[in-house]
From TrEMBL:
This is ABC-type Mn2+/Zn2+ transport system ATPase subunit. PANTHER family: IRON TRANSPORT SYSTEM ATP-BINDING PROTEIN HI_0361-RELATED (PTHR42734:SF5), METAL TRANSPORT SYSTEM ATP-BINDING PROTEIN TM_0124-RELATED (PTHR42734). Keywords: ATP-binding, Nucleotide-binding, Transport. One of its GO terms (molecular function) is ATP binding. The keyword ATP-binding applies. Belongs to the ABC transporter superfamily. Pfam families: ABC_tran. Residues 7-234 form the ABC transporter domain.
Length: 246
């Protein structure tokens, strides 16, 4: 069965005023897809994300959302504000506001959904703890639960494993993989790491200065394609079923 298309870029150019960041992008994203966006600082990852979200209109060409879409956004855990003594459950309930209405008190159904989302991310026992007292990895999971209770069509994760040790990184990536498998969500993951993207995404967008390439992971994560993009020799090893890009 063909997956339903959600977002299409038709020769779309993204930039700010007269400044072009990403010229002439043509690609589609469908239900159940998994896009990894990778590139160094300043390459345009956030700009592409804004284009996908529809908050930065293209300066030329067209970006189409095929139906109204709900985006669940998971920011980097270290960018969250730790001043307020807010509990984990209250943070997750924020994800219901868009559905329930901003000034409405969350009902028992909202609470039940928030508890379920905390179970989904493996933290049901932490609901009454203060968010600011959690570890970076636990905060990341709570922010994922907050995105999930909004019942999104698209789960957007911004550098979900930055500042994590290798064990927390692989646990987080496995969790995202499980959520992706259990639902028809489109996952969009932004990362600095080609290794993370090469092992988890189905579609890869590589951004690097003047270069942009998007396609299936098997086509993009190839020594020839990467050499063409970066003029640099890459080695790609398969170790126990995983890709290792050197
Ligand atoms: N609002 C803006 N107005 C003008 N230029 C911008 C604006 N936002 C970003 N840029 C420029 O667009 C380019 C791409 O920026 P972008 O934030 O998309 O990169 P990035 O890959 O997300 O970087 P990082 O990994 O550092 O977050 C940069 O050169 C940046 O200076």
């Amino acid at each position: 069965m063909e997956n339903t298309p959600l977002i299409t870029f038709d020769d779309a150019t993204l930039g700010y005023g007269r400044r072009v960041v990403l010229p002439s992008l043509t690609f589609g994203l469908s239900e159940g897809g998994y896009l990894g966006i990778v590139g160094p600082n300043g390459a345009g990852k956030t700009t592409l994300l804004k284009g996908i979200l529809g908050i930065l209109p293209p300066t030329a060409g067209k970006v189409t959302h095929h139906r109204p879409l709900t985006f669940g956004y998971v920011p980097q855990a270290q960018t969250t504000d730790d001043l307020f003594p807010i509990t984990v459950l209250e943070i997750v309930l924020m994800g219901r506001y868009r559905r329930a209405g901003l000034l409405k008190t969350p009902g028992s159904d909202d609470r039940a959904r928030a508890e379920r989302a905390l179970e989904q991310v493996g933290l049901p026992h932490l609901s009454t703890r203060l968010f600011r007292e959690l570890s970076g990895g636990q905060k990341q999971r709570v922010l994922m639960a907050r995105a999930l209770v909004s019942e999104p069509d698209v789960l957007v994760l911004d550098e979900p494993t930055s500042a994590m040790d290798i064990a927390a990184e692989s646990a987080t990536m496995e969790l995202i993989e499980r959520i992706h498998h259990e639902s028809r969500l489109l996952v969009v993951l932004v990362s600095h790491s080609l290794n993370i993207v090469a092992n988890h995404a189905q579609t890869v967008a590589i951004l690097g200065g003047a270069h942009f390439q998007i396609g299936p992971v098997e086509e993009i994560v190839q020594p020839d394609t990467l050499r063409g993009l970066f003029h640099y020799d890459f080695k790609i090893l398969e170790v126990e079923g995983r890709r290792l890009v050197l």
